[in-house]
Inverse folding.
């Protein structure tokens, strides 16, 4: 009927921007940081570890855009090189933790019984402690160093993925397609890995994305406290730590702090975008 | 006669569209009808025909992006379509009440029944809390809730589905509305409970004079209650009239198709194939320009390219069809005969499946640490034989154990006790690895076409999986050829292989599910409610497909359903299950003509027939109460608590399943007494 006035429908591009604009922005920021990390030596003019006491604590200028730190190192160079450590550690912790936790949780949920019970109590045990304190304790026991800190973080990291994948698998395993696969004669490994897990990846991907920022933050926190990387390796958290006393020389701590802020926020935007994309209710609007 | 007075509700040219991103979905597209005071109006149509959206428009219960874009809804001098929010709130619940399909979700689970009923009444300021409480108890009693003064303080989860629907009705009637809209109120209920609720609805309409709009997909339910019927198709009313006329002499081909697609419980069919119409309803984003039913209509003529109006065809009747406008009649066509399926000699009676003393008990979690271990006796001593080549039906109300039995036979569950012998092999406690070779011969079709196909796999992967697992297809090319054959067998296009399940409709998915079951070339197929999630015309298509496949491939079916008419139509023998035990088993024809068990008799009488004249003449045996819990079945005969002819002996002694007529075995102390009593009364 032509005489019915329809409200104006927003154009496809406006709708897409309204829904995924922030996520796209987040993805662009992440991409920029990843490229910066890969091409760090070509993007910077100085050696990140070059000590030049004569140049110490210079404010931002034409030659040192973000100033220099207490040892005369160029802050801009160190921030860009710092992306290498932070992004790598974040990804390793989250991806390894997610893979391990997911498989363990899924297997436990499919097996039921004592395996599930035991695993869940183990995760409860980890959840009893504040994650950063527990990671600190483990890292301190293992000794300072990037690898040891990563191991410490992994211990704290996998249980949330185990819990999520367990609940996802439990909700999937009562679906009729699982019974159909059983009645055809497929074994448990095939059903779990090829049939159930592909249906559970959506929420896991959302958690992984949201968690990347979190992992970078925790690692920066541990480094800030002196547990993460060994100095002089450029790393954002330890840079903030080195600058925390220097109130007058604000640039030493501010710029690595801003780097952490942008990466964490960008990952959160991306995670929210993924969640909207996977949620059919949010999608329909 | 209400005809003279002003109608209570006048809907004129109502258009409710969903303004989605991809353009308007014209769900209700120009619907007009009247409801008079005290009238019962039925609305039928398949899913997507716009009947529920129409009801929600009247109550203005529309969520974004649905919007009433045109037309008016005049109710007692007000236009509900244009009333402000405050105005419509005064109408909702007070003057127009609504009862929804799913009694499990329409009550708030954390509030007591009493509070929900009292709030519904005090919200409109007509009752004080104390008066509302007294009235709530009275209403529940009127709705047939036992011990209403006590149960009013229960939480919804303590009530069964039928009881909750009674609570919903009590809530609906609590403010003495002049119109009640019931949207599929009995679809989620068992047939005996459905009969009770329909009876209640009829009585309430008669005693309180409340007008009722009853929305249903089931012509039997409609003909049972309604004094006028609207048939909806593709967002329009296509036919309107009294049920007596409309259901015996339909004037729209769609009504005709609905009527013929459903098997009837009161008729013995000479052929198991049903009359179906081809295709799917059109896309509501772009209705065809002419008659919207034209593409599927077996009677279409050239003029149908023009859009027909809803015009009177007779006194009190109207139809939207060019063919019947011009006096054309809708004949019943010859049923399609199966090609070369001449009746062969009855095959020798070789049992393919033998079950004896089968039990499955599920231990439940204890309520407290020291509590007694509770056990759900889902299947509790079943003996059954299935002969190669026959179709055995398994019927019963929900919770009777029929789905558990299916999963025991296919060994998805392991029995607690008893024996299952399939094709000469004892599979009672066989390991999954030991059964795997037998799975080539025994397959299953599932109920829910939306859950039974893995949404992340393409149709090609779903169908090739079993072929590769069982080594039927040697290589990828052989698998592809076989998958193409399978798709052709179930009547799906070959290019479906690369698509995902969500791209198919419910009926097409059920075809894929059947193709998957047939992939390994089984001779025994367990079908667990294969058609109960589908619309009636799609049901008929799937039944026809299953019958065809049985003839072509010599399949044996164990067919599980709750719809007695369907079971009567497709099965050779029927077993009636009640609380995990077989009450009666026998040839389909004998079981329906002279049911020997009182439960079978009441089940048959509870199933509605889509013909008001037959419905009036039938003798209804009211079924008392609700099925008892399988946690604690009654002593003696399990059915005695609801049995109209139970005696003291029934409580003391459990009747064994004994042969009472040729091939007909029954577990009752008084076989045939109820049916014979009917025969004497007639």
């Amino acid at each position: 009927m032509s005489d019915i006035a329809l409200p104006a429908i927003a154009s496809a591009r406006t709708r897409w921007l309204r829904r995924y604009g922030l996520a796209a922005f987040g993805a662009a920021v992440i991409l920029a940081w990843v490229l910066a990390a890969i091409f760090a030596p070509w993007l910077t003019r100085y050696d990140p570890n070059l000590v030049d006491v004569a140049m110490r604590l210079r404010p931002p200028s034409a030659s040192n855009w973000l100033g220099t730190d207490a040892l005369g190192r160029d802050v801009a160079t160190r921030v860009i090189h710092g992306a290498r450590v932070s992004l790598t550690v974040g990804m390793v912790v989250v991806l390894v933790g997610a893979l391990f936790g997911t498989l363990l949780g899924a297997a436990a949920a499919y097996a039921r019984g004592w395996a599930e019970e035991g695993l869940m109590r183990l995760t409860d045990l980890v959840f009893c402690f504040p994650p950063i304190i527990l990671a600190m304790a483990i890292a301190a026991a293992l000794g300072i160093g990037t690898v040891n800190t990563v191991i410490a973080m992994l211990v704290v990291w996998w249980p949330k993925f185990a819990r999520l994948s367990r609940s996802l698998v439990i909700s999937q395993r009562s679906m009729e397609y699982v019974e159909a696969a059983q009645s055809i004669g497929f074994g448990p490994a095939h059903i779990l890995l090829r049939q159930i897990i592909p249906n559970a990846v959506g929420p896991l991907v959302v958690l992984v994305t949201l968690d990347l920022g979190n992992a970078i933050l925790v690692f920066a926190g541990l480094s800030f406290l002196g547990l993460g990387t060994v100095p002089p390796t450029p790393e954002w958290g330890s840079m903030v730590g080195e600058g925390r006393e220097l109130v007058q020389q604000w640039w030493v701590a501010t710029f690595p702090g801003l780097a952490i802020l942008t990466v964490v926020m960008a990952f959160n935007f991306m995670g929210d975008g993924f969640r909207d994309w996977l949620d059919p209710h949010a999608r329909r609007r | 006669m209400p005809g003279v007075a002003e109608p209570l509700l006048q809907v004129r040219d109502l258009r409710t569209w969903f303004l989605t991103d991809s353009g308007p979905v014209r769900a209700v597209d120009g619907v007009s009808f009247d409801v008079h005071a005290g009238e019962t109006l039925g609305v039928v149509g398949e899913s997507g025909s716009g009947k529920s959206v129409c009801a929600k428009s009247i109550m203005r219960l529309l969520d974004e992006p649905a919007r009433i874009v045109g037309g008016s809804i005049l109710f007692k001098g007000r236009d509900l379509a244009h009333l402000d929010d405050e105005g419509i709130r005064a109408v909702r619940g007070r003057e127009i009440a609504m009862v929804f399909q799913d009694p499990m979700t329409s009550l708030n689970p954390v509030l007591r029944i009493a509070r929900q009923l009292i709030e519904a009444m005090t919200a409109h300021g007509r009752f004080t809390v104390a008066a509302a409480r007294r009235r709530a108890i009275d209403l529940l009693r009127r709705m047939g809730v036992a011990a209403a003064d006590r149960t009013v303080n229960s939480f919804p989860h303590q009530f069964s589905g039928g009881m909750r629907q009674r609570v919903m009705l009590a809530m609906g009637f609590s403010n003495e509305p002049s119109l009640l809209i019931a949207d599929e109120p009995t679809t989620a209920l068992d047939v005996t409970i459905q009969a009770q609720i329909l009876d209640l609805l009829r009585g309430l309409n008669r005693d309180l004079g409340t007008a009722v709009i009853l929305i249903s997909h089931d012509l039997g339910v409609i003909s049972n209650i309604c004094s006028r019927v609207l048939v909806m198709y593709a967002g329009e009313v296509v036919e309107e009239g009294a049920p007596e006329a409309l259901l015996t002499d339909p004037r729209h081909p769609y009504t005709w198709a609905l009527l013929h697609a459903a098997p009837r419980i009161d008729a013995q069919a000479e052929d198991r194939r049903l009359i179906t119409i081809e295709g799917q309803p059109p896309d509501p984003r772009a209705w065809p320009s002419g008659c919207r039913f034209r593409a599927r209509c077996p009677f279409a003529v050239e003029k149908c390219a023009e859009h027909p109006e809803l015009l009177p065809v007779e006194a009190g009747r109207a139809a939207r069809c060019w063919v019947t406008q011009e006096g054309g009649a809708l004949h019943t066509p010859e049923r399609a005969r199966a090609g070369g399926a001449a009746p062969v000699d009855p095959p020798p009676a070789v049992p393919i499946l033998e079950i004896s003393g089968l039990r499955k008990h599920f231990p439940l979690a204890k309520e407290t640490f020291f509590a007694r271990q509770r056990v759900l006796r889902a299947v509790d001593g079943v003996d059954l034989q299935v002969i190669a080549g026959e179709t055995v039906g398994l019927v019963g109300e929900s919770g009777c154990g029929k789905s558990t039995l299916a999963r025991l036979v296919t060994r998805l569950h392991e029995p607690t006790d008893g024996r299952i012998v399939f094709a000469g092999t004892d599979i009672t406690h066989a390991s999954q690895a030991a059964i795997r070779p037998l799975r080539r011969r025994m397959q299953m079709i599932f109920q829910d076409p939306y859950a039974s196909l893995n949404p992340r796999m393409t149709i090609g992967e779903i169908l090739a999986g079993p072929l590769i697992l069982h080594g039927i297809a040697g290589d990828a090319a052989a698998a592809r050829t076989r998958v193409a054959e399978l798709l052709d067998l179930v009547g799906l296009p070959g290019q479906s292989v690369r698509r995902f399940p969500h791209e198919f409709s419910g009926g097409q998915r059920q075809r894929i599910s059947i193709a998957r079951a047939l992939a390994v070339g089984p001779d025994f197929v367990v079908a667990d409610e294969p058609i109960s999630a589908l619309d009636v015309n799609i049901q008929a298509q799937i039944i026809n497909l299953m019958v065809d496949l049985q003839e072509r491939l010599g399949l044996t079916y164990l067919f599980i359903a709750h719809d007695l008419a369907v079971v009567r139509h497709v099965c050779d023998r029927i077993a009636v299950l009640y609380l995990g035990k077989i009450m009666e088993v026998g040839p389909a024809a004998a079981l329906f003509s002279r049911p020997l068990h009182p439960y079978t008799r009441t089940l048959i009488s509870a199933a509605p027939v889509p013909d008001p004249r037959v419905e009036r003449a039938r003798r209804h045996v009211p079924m008392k109460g609700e099925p008892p819990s399988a946690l604690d079945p009654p002593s003696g005969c399990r059915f005695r608590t609801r049995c109209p002819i139970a005696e003291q002996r029934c409580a003391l002694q459990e009747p064994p399943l004994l042969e009472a007529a040729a091939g007909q075995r029954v577990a009752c102390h008084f076989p045939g007494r109820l049916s014979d009593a009917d025969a004497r009364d007639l």
In short: Chain B touches chain A at residues 15, 19-21, 23-24, 64-65, 69-70, 407, 410, 412, 432, 435-436, 439-440, 443-444, 446-448, 451-457, 465-466, 469-470, 513, 516, 520 (CB under 8 Å). Chain B has a mean pLDDT of 86. Chain B has two domains: 9-263, 351-444+523-666.
